[in-house]
Amino acid sequence: MSDESNGNLIKDRLVQLRCHFTWNLLIEDVEVPDLENRVFDNILFLDTKNKGTIYNLLAYVKHLKGQNEEALESLKEAEDLIQQEHANQSDLRSLVTWGNYAWLCYHMGRLADARIYLDKVENTCKKFASPNCYRMECPEMDCEEGWALLKCGGKNYERAKACFEKALEVDAENPEFSTGYAIATYRLDSFNKTTQISEAFCLHPLKKAIRLNPENAYIKALLAVKLQDVGQEAEGEKYIEEALTSESSQTYVFRYAAKFYRRKGSVDKALQLLKKALQKTPNSVVVHHQRAICYKTQMIQIKKTTNWQPRGRDREDVHKLLQRAISDLETTLQLKPSNGMAYVELADMYAEIGQHRMAEDIFQKALCLKVCSPYLQQHIYYRYGRFQELQKKSAANAIIYYLKVVRTEEPSSTRDKSMSSLEKLALKKLQRNDLDIENLSILGFIYKLKGEINEALEYYERALRLSAGVENSVGYDW
C-alpha cells in the first residue's frame, strides 16, 4: 500500500475517534494563550482526581501552538496519571489520550506510530463490545468531552452541559458527572446573566454536587455566589466561610470569595483575597479583572460620600484608584484580547478621566468583537449608548445603540434599562418638538414592548397622522 493510501486509511479511522481533535472545540486563536495559562493554573492549583484530563487538554493546546513534541510530553503525563487515578479503568480512561496520540502522530507524519495507538483504541473497543471499532459510547467518554468543552470558553458551554447530562442519564449519582454538570449550569447561568430566582437553574445541581462531593470547596464557593445572586446572601456566606477554611482548590476559592465579599460591600476583604490569588496565579484574567472592579467600586464609594465632587485627598485617592483599575484592565486585555466586559470597563475608566478619544477607540474595539453571548452584546451596546448620551452629549447616537439593545429578543436587566433610557430621551426630545415623528414612533414601540397598548396606539397614531400630513404637503396626493 502506498504512503498516500495508508495515510487516507488512517485518516478515515482517526475521524471516528472521540478526542480533542474531533470534538470541534471552539477556540479563537487570540484565546489560546489565556487557555494555556488557565490549564497550567488548573494543573497547579485545582484539586481534582482527573489531572490526566487536564494534561490531555494541555497537549491539544500545545498542538494548536505548533508545539507537537511538547504535546507528546503532555500526553505521556496524561497516560501516567490515568494509570494512577483510574487503575481499575485505565483502558477505558486512556481512550482519549490514545486518540490524541494517534492524531498527533498523524500530523507529525509518523503513520506507523499513529497505527499503534489506533490499534490500542480498537482493542479496547472490542474488549468492551463496542459496535464501532474506533469509538466508544459510554458515560466516561461523555464526561471527558464535557470537561474539554467546559474549559474552552462560553461558546462551548451548552454542549458541555449536554455531555454531562448524557453521562448522568446512565449514572445519576456519579460525583464526577454531577460536579461537571453543576459547573456547566453555573457557567451558563452566569453567561446568560439570569437574575430571577426561578431562572437560577444551577442551584439544585450545585447542591447535589456538594452532597456527592462534601469536601469540594470550589463547588461550595460557586454555590455561595449563586445564592447571593438570588438574594440568599446569609446562606451563601456560610458556604463561603466553609470553603475558605478548606485548603482544597484554595486559589480558586479566593476568586469567588472575593466576588462574594465585594458585592456584599466588603471591598477591602475582597482585595486581600485577590492579592493572595494573584501571588499564585499572576496571569489570571479573572483575578486582574476582579481587582479592577474592586478599585472601581472604591472610587465610586468616595465620589458618593463627597456628593460626586471629591476634593483634596479624596480627589487624589479617586485618581489613584482609576489608574489602578486601568492598569489591571489593560493587563486583562493583554492576557485575553477577546474579553468584551474588560473593554467596556476600560473605556468607562478613560471616559472618567476625560480621555474621550481613547474611550471611543476602546469602545470601537468592543463593538467589533465576535460576541457569542447576546447578553454581553446587549451590555456593550448599552454602555456605548450611555457613553454617547452622557459623555459625548449625542442623544441621536445614544438612541441608535439603545434601540440595538431593545430590538434583541432576550429579556434582561440591560434591556430594561435601555428601554427606560430610550423612553426618557424620546420624551425629552418631544418636549422640544412635539411633531417629531421618529420619537413618537420610538415611544409607540417602547410602550408596545412594555405591554401598555393604549399608550402605544396613541403615539403610533400621532406619528401616522404627522407622516400623512408630510406626504400630502410634498405632493403625494394620489
Summarize the structure.
One of its GO terms (biological process) is innate immune response. The protein has a domain at about 5-135: Serine Threonine Protein Phosphatase 5, Tetratricopeptide repeat (Alpha Horseshoe). Helices cover about 75% and strands about 0% of the residues.
Task: Describe it.
GO terms for molecular function: RNA binding. Keywords: Antiviral defense, Coiled coil, Immunity, Innate immunity, Repeat, TPR repeat. This protein is mostly helical. The chain has a domain at 3-137: Serine Threonine Protein Phosphatase 5, Tetratricopeptide repeat. Helix content is 74%, strand content 0%. It is built from 24 helices and no strands. The chain has helices spanning 3-14, 32-45, 51-64, 68-85, 90-93, 95-107, 111-127, 139-150, 157-170, 175-191, 203-212, 217-229, 233-245, 250-264, 267-280, 285-305, 312-335, 340-352, 356-367, 374-391, 395-406, 413-432, 437-449, 453-473. Helix 3 runs antiparallel to helix 4 and helix 19 (356-367) packs antiparallel against helix 20. The longest helix is centred in the C-terminal third of the chain and has 24 residues, at 312-335. It is globular. The model is unreliable at 194-198 and 471-478 (pLDDT under 50).
What brief labels describe this structure?
478 residues, mainly alpha, 24 helices, globular, disordered C terminus, repeat, RNA binding, coiled coil, Interferon induced protein with tetratricopeptide repeats 3
CATH-level-2 architecture of the domain at 3-137: Alpha Horseshoe
Report the top-level CATH class of the domain at 3-137: Mainly Alpha
Q: What is the number of helices?
A: 24
Radius of gyration: 27 Å
Termini separation comes to: 80 Å
Q: Largest beta sheet, briefly? A: none
Q: CATH H-level name of the domain at 3-137... which superfamily?
A: Tetratricopeptide repeat domain
Low-pLDDT segments, ≥5 res: 194-198, 471-478
> What level of helicity do the residues show?
over 70%
Outline = globular
Number of strands: 0
Question: Quick check: average pLDDT?
Answer: 92
**Computed structural class:** mainly alpha
Strand content: under 5%
Indicate the CATH topology of the domain at 3-137: Serine Threonine Protein Phosphatase 5, Tetratricopeptide repeat
Order of helical and strand elements: HHHHHHHHHHHHHHHHHHHHHHHH
